[in-house]
Amino acid sequence: MFKRLFVLSLLVPVLAPALALAQSGDPSGKLTTEAIIKRTLEGRFGGAKIEAVAKTPYLGLYEVRLPGNEIIYVDEKMSYVFSGSILDAKSMQNLTEKRLRELTAIKWEDLPLEGAFKTVRGNGKRLLAVFSDPNCPYCKRFEKDLAKLSDVTIYTFLYPILSQDSTDKSKAVWCSPDKSKAWNDLMLSGTVPAPARCDTPIEKNLAFARKTNITGTPTLFFANGERVPGAVPQEQLEKLLAQNSK
Q1: What's residue 97's pLDDT?
Q2: Which of 82, 103, 124 is the C-terminal boundary of a domain?
Q3: Can you tell me whether residue 166 is helix, strand or coil?
Q4: Which residue, 74, 103, 132, sits at the end of a domain?
């Protein structure tokens, strides 16, 4: 990430002349500013893929979407490249983070729920999906907050990415007679379930995660499809569940 930003800073002085060259190479005048920015940046970044460019309502800046769920900003003439978050000065809301959540959302119906085990508390009306690694310390801390939730259905996707031991523990949980109990005992008490062999959805979970760019644990999905990376505090979790429940 920092290496990429360093390269961007070195390229800033040559982007504006490159834009003029790109425009002169389009005598039809049919290329949009977004298309010119995309073509110019890809050329100057050694063929690196730019996923999309879109005009923002912020000071005439253009949003440039890079692989790996990253956003940078450029002005129309590409005289400057901006990296970092844009905040709303009144509400102090992180607009870049909000935009990333919109871009990385997944329809609830598209989640492969057959690859998760289900834990229901109370009426189970609020829905939450969690991709988790059994050796992830943030996941263990987050499970303590999940245990305090009521009226929720939690779909836990075993997503072992840290080590072979993570995979072994995930398989043991999935092959347990009571998956939810085995998982809670492991994450909350450190009790490792006995090794067992059975068919598991772990490889499919890993493939789905690669396809949808789930790169860390825990990663949360809410009923409206919103994706939230990381172990959010319980107060924020309750707020997100209230906002995003069907």
Answers
A1: 85
A2: 103
A3: helix
A4: 103
Q: Are 227 and 99 in contact (CB under 8 A)?
A: no
pLDDT in tens, 38-52: 988 888 777 778 888
pTM value is: 0.73
Structure tokens at 36: 């010119």
Q: Tell me the pLDDT tens digit for each residue of 15-33.
A: 445 445 444 455 555 788 8
Contacts of 68 (CB under 8 A, 6+ apart): 213, 215
The whole-angstrom separation of Cα 70 and Cα 58 is: 18
Choose the weakest-confidence range: 60-74, 117-131, 132-146, 158-172.
60-74
Claim to verify: residue 95 and residue 125 sit in the same structural domain: no
The number of folded domains in the chain is: 2
Report cis status (omega within 30 of 0) of the bond before 195: no
Domain of 33 in residue numbering reads as 2-103
- Give the CA distances from residue 53 to residues 33, 36, 76, in Å, rounded to whole numbers and listed in that order: 9, 9, 11
Do 186 and 240 fall within a single domain? Answer: yes
Residue type for position 86: I
Distance between CA 136 and CA 186 in Å, rounded? 12
Contacts of 204 (CB under 8 A, 6+ apart): 112, 115
